[in-house]
UniProtKB/TrEMBL annotation:
This is 2-deoxy-scyllo-inosamine dehydrogenase. Pathway: Metabolic intermediate biosynthesis; 2-deoxystreptamine biosynthesis; 2-deoxystreptamine from D-glucose 6-phosphate: step 3/4. The keyword Amino-acid biosynthesis does not apply. Its cofactor is Zn(2+). Keywords: Metal-binding, Oxidoreductase, Zinc. It catalyses: 2-deoxy-scyllo-inosamine + NADP(+) = 3-amino-2,3-dideoxy-scyllo-inosose + NADPH + H(+); 2-deoxy-scyllo-inosamine + NAD(+) = 3-amino-2,3-dideoxy-scyllo-inosose + NADH + H(+). Its EC number is 1.1.1.329. It comes from Streptomyces doudnae. GO terms for molecular function: metal ion binding; oxidoreductase activity. Residues 13-334 form the Enoyl reductase (ER) domain. It holds the Pfam family ADH_N. PANTHER family: ALCOHOL DEHYDROGENASE-RELATED, L-THREONINE 3-DEHYDROGENASE.
Length: 336
């Protein structure tokens, strides 16, 4: 396979575009030709140098949200994978600890390793990784849309934990990529009501297009009798807002990661109202499989969330766009 190019972040604030030599797959591995790679806040942290210690290893090719086509496989990997469209899990789990055996691979006790953070990521022409991490897409899948399935899988993990039943009243706090995916996942479960709460009135129309029956900003009057709430905002007060929307005995799933020192949930409130609280960090294999099924069934529409598609050499501009706070900036993709 011919060489291409790759983004390398040498150290915080320092990056270059380099020639990329595809790494031939070893036994158990696959080489994927990257179609598109998404940028999220954690990629910005990598570039700025404020990702927590132990969760990044420089120099690094970032990119943990990606889609592509299998070009080559190593020994022991089914040859039928070659030519298939795929997405892939990022967490490099050990597969032998108790948590891995329970299917909770994001809690692997062998320590943190993840594509695009401690291992080479997808901001390159190709990516070589363990084939067991791949999830095969339908042949007709749109690979640009599929590049967003990593954040969707994190939301799928939340949807599985929320266990919203048809006819329940559900709400989403947050209107970013995760919030819009949460809206689509919950809509697919036929809720009686689906409220989206955010800080930006300009997200009302998009929320409704994804199935919301009501949209409110956090400064408006909010109900307090919902069965299920999924929080995706990650702001200091989002968890409190989300909990306040619940009926007694309601179920709350937190996916946003606020800055350290954020005000937490009131334990008295949790106990007296008997709230059930779940949290999500990353996506285990069952959530990935669920996401690919839901996407394949046409129940997830990631494309309206994409606002920019740029070549690899515009990495710096892409990072700037992601942090700009401009309401016109949605999901930014790089196209190797």
């Amino acid at each position: 396979m011919s060489t291409g190019s790759a983004v390398v972040v040498e150290a915080p604030g320092e990056h270059r575009l380099t020639a990329h030599e595809p790494r031939r797959p070893d036994a158990g591995e696959a080489l994927v030709r990257v179609h598109a790679v998404g940028i999220c806040g954690s990629d910005r942290e990598v570039y700025q140098g404020n990702r927590p210690e132990g969760y990044v290893r420089y120099p690094l090719t970032p990119g943990h949200e990606w889609s592509g086509t299998v070009a080559e496989v190593g020994a022991g990997v089914p040859a039928a994978l070659v030519g298939r469209k795929v997405v892939g899990e990022g967490f490099r789990n050990c597969q032998v600890c108790d948590r891995c055996h329970a299917g909770e691979t994001t809690l692997c006790t062998a320590g943190y390793e993840e594509t695009g953070f401690t291992r080479p990521g997808a901001m390159a022409t190709t990516l070589t990784l363990p084939a067991r991490l791949l999830h095969v897409l339908p042949d007709g899948a749109d690979l640009t849309a599929a590049a967003l399935l990593e954040p969707a899988a994190c939301v799928a993990a939340a949807a599985i934990k929320a266990n919203a039943r048809p006819g329940e009243r559900v709400a989403v706090v947050g209107t970013g990529t995760l919030g819009m995916f949460a809206t689509q996942f919950l809509r697919a479960g036929s809720p009686a009501e689906l409220l989206v709460v955010g800080t930006r009135p300009d997200r009302a129309e998009l929320s409704r297009s994804f199935g919301a029956t009501d949209f409110r900003t956090r400064d408006q009057e909010l109900p307090d009798d919902f069965d299920v709430v999924v929080e995706t905002a990650g702001s200091a007060s989002a968890a409190t807002t989300a909990a306040a929307l619940l009926r007694r005995g309601g179920r709350l799933v937190l996916t946003g990661i606020p800055a350290p020192g954020a005000d937490g949930l009131d334990p008295t409130d949790l106990v007296v109202r008997q709230l059930e609280v779940h949290t999500v960090f990353g996506a285990a294999p069952d959530a990935w499989a669920h996401t690919v099924r839901v996407f394949g069934a046409g129940l997830l529409d990631p494309l309206p969330l994409v606002s920019h598609e740029l070549p690899l050499d515009e990495f710096a501009r892409a990072i700037e766009l992601v942090g700009s706070g401009d309401p016109k900036v949605g999901k930014v993709l790089l196209r190797p």
